Structure formats: structure tokens, C-alpha cells
Amino acid sequence: MSYISLASITAYSQYKVKPQFFVSETSIKFILPVTNVLPKVTKDESIIMETLGSGYVLSSSEIVERTPFNKSKVIRLINHLCENGYVYKVGTGRGTKYRI
């Protein structure tokens, strides 16, 4: 039986970048963010990060639906966040999604 301590998750509640947890049949992988460095993002980029920050893996169209931005602005913001390592691309082509 395996579990993740609630304290380990809530310890990062004040940060934009959250820990990542990957579980497979043979391993568990934790990626913990560096917390002593504040992300240098714009207000618009922080809205994108907050949208993805709840553990969602969303397409750009889904992000458009949840934010006040149009598609081209969302793509531009996501690309900048990906370049800086704050957001990760999952998949390619029309099935591309994004996550923190």
C-alpha cells in the first residue's frame, strides 16, 4: 500500500510551481520544485499557471475557455512559460496539452 502525505502536498500550497508525482507499476518518482526562487512571470502568465496549477492537463482551447485570453495570446503565453520551464508540453500536434 502506498500513500502520499497530505502534509507534503499542502507544504507547497503557497507556490505557483507544484511538486510532480509519477507512479508506475515498479516505481514512484517525485519532482520537487525549487522554492527559494520566485518565478519571474507576468500577471497574464500567472493566470495561465493558476489555471494549470490545480493539477490539470489542458489543451490550449481548454485554457482559452478558463481564462480571459484569446487563442493566440494563450499560445504565446504558454510558449514563453514552456521556454522558461514553468509549463510542460504533453503530446504533439492537435492533441497537445499542457501541465505545470
Q: Care to describe what's here?
A:
This protein is an alpha+beta fold. It has a domain at 43-99: Winged helix-like DNA-binding domain superfamily/Winged helix DNA-binding domain (Arc Repressor Mutant, subunit A, Orthogonal Bundle). The protein is built from 4 helices and 4 strands, in the order H-E-E-H-H-H-E-E. The protein has helices at residues 6-10, 43-52, 60-66, 71-83; strands at 20-23, 28-31, 88-90, 97-99. Strands 1-2 form a two-stranded antiparallel ribbon. Strands 3-4 form a two-stranded antiparallel sheet. The radius of gyration is 14 Å and the shape is globular. This is MarR family transcriptional regulator. It comes from Macrococcoides goetzii.
Entry summary:
With 100 residues, the chain is an alpha+beta fold. 35% of the residues lie in helices and 14% in strands.
